[in-house]
Design goal:
4-stranded antiparallel β-sheet; single chain; about 375 residues; mainly beta; about 10% helix; flat
Amino acid sequence: MRHFTSVLVVVSLTATGASAQSVLERVLGQIDGATNLTQVNGVYANIAESIGDPGTIATPTITTTETVPVGLADAPDDTYMYSIYRSGFGSFHISAGDIGTTFTAGDGTAAGTFLSNVGVDSVTVNDDGTLTINAVSSSQPVSVYNSSTDSDITFPAGPLSETILLADDTFVYLYFGEPFLFSAAIAADYADRHKTVYPVLTQDITTTVGGTSSIPGLSTTIDGSITNIITGVTTATAEAALGVVTATEFTLPTFDLGDMATTALGAVNTGAITLGVNAAVDEAVTTTTRAISAAMTQIGGAADTGALVLNVASNASAVNGSIQNTMIAVNGSIGSASTTALGAVNTGNIVSGVDAAVQGIVGMSGQNTSGL
């Protein structure tokens, strides 16, 4: 005869608001730290739980430094961008520090005097580094040198309005020790021909990813409360004075709040855990012979080992289902008020038993036969 032992380990758990661990985490921690327990071959848990705890996450801190070329946004103020010139009048240079500036002819500055002399009405250095030229009375061709493309653009005499663009891949290079906005192709060509273009100006960009940061957690309170605060009049609505006698009338408003109901639930567990032993028996009987085949399968643990079975509803948060009404200097009525506040509720069950299936075959060999 085989013997079957069903082992049920009952664990008493008390959750507190200070604990950030779940019930299962704490149970498994107790098992790991115990030295006097029978071997447990299975943990079966059916848990409903609410734990209010804002937490933090910690990830490896990774710091990377990348060397990148300096573009227009980080160019030194003296970086050479454009030059406006006309034969016999010299040149007017525009640098990165002039971005966002409009130069106007005749404004009393050296640039304004130059523009008046060459017949250019105004020059605007736009925020994106482009150059807009307006000329209304140029009597001679006016040229503009664009350092990023290493090209001259010559405008004919007469009125004009033109916007000059920088090359797309423009970075700051040192040419004869001076910073210039060159495209990569122009810088390579200059370096090949003149051997005087130094490497592009660069800057180190440091990026830090990871570390400990806060993450949103569950609220420490399950709040299903209702709060009504109503205040009445604050000044007199009518006042009469006669000699030293004063009469003041206040008109108080009336409110009807009607019915109020609130329900606040913590953890609710309506699950079930079913464990047991399955048995199957086959039997064949004749008058003189009898054959029996039996098979049993242990579910939820072997006969010599234990099984930890948990069916828990655990609530580690405050549950607030209150109704609060504050009425000051008013008339009013409140209908029925009902409130329900539940913490952990467990209506589940654990079933440990034996299921059996029996099949019988009965035969006859000339005598009375007894079957299963």
